[in-house]
Amino acid sequence: MVTAAAVAATVTDPELPMLTLADLGVLRSVSVSEGRVVVAITPTYTGCPAMDTMRDDLEHALVSAGYADVEIRTQLSPAWTSDWISASGREKLAAAGIAPPGAAPRRAGPIPLTLSAPVTRVSCPHCGSADTEEQSRFGATACKALRRCRACQEPFEHVKEI
């Protein structure tokens, strides 16, 4: 029988299907004790609508692999950061035409509230040009922004630094 951790590591993200939950960094732990599989996942942000699908997909994959007793837990601490996306995951995003995030901002103490969007330099995943502009702060999902390359004119999504 394939290990529960190996099965869980193959489950893909419902919003970014080129990534596994492990690539995305939301798969935090998998343990087996007395026949019960306990999986911990961390949402990319509070209220992420994909969490229910992630839970269902993990449970389905594990039950299909022969694990009858499965519990999926949500782990909120530490909070997910885009820095948890693996190097392989970043390569898969770029190969799919989605700009991977840069380094997440480092903050201590309260997060300051500003009314303007952060300025981020993002290279085009199609041609590599850094001459890109944000078209919309929110793309197909809240964790992605819609951008356009001024050099090749191609639109693309960018996973935001969180």
TrEMBL record:
Gene: paaJ
InterPro entries the record matches: Fe-S_Maturation_MIP18, FSCA_dom_sf, MIP18-like, PaaD-like, Zn_ribbon_PaaD
Residue ranges of domain MIP18 family-like in the record: 10-65
Protein name in the entry: Phenylacetate-CoA oxygenase subunit PaaJ
Taxon lineage: Bacteria, Bacillati, Actinomycetota, Actinomycetes, Pseudonocardiales
Domain of life (superkingdom): Bacteria
One matching Pfam family: Zn_ribbon_PaaD
The PaaD zinc beta ribbon domain, residue ranges: 115-160
